[in-house]
Design a protein that fits this description.
The protein has 100 residues and is an alpha+beta fold. It is built from 2 helices and 3 strands.
Length: 100
């Protein structure tokens, strides 16, 4: 497969760098979603954790239940986007690895 130790080392190094790139890309995943009524915008990271929350004045007219429901639904939508982006990154990586 490899004719020399240098070729093997270069191949391993290349794979290691690509794996690090994947880690960096996954760490950089962010997704934003605005609620249909535009009362809030939620940004999540690649793990679905909220990293930013912007609220409009209209939340003052919401009941606690409406606020909770809107926050959960908007966060869920943002998290789905983030997870889809992470899945795309992993699928691309897996396609590359399978051809090595």
């Amino acid at each position: 497969m490899y004719e020399s130790m240098d070729e093997l080392e270069a191949s391993v190094r290349s794979r290691l760098y690509r794996l690090r790139d994947l880690g960096d890309q996954m760490a950089g995943v962010r997704a934003r979603e605005t609620s249909p009524d535009e009362s809030m915008t939620v940004e999540v990271d690649g793990n679905g954790a909220i990293v930013d929350l912007q609220l409009s004045e209209s939340i003052s007219r919401m009941t606690p239940e409406q606020f909770e429901s809107t926050l959960v639904a908007t966060s869920y939508s943002a998290a789905r986007q983030a997870f889809a982006e992470r899945a795309d990154l992993v699928n691309t990586f897996n396609d590359e690895v399978s051809s090595w």
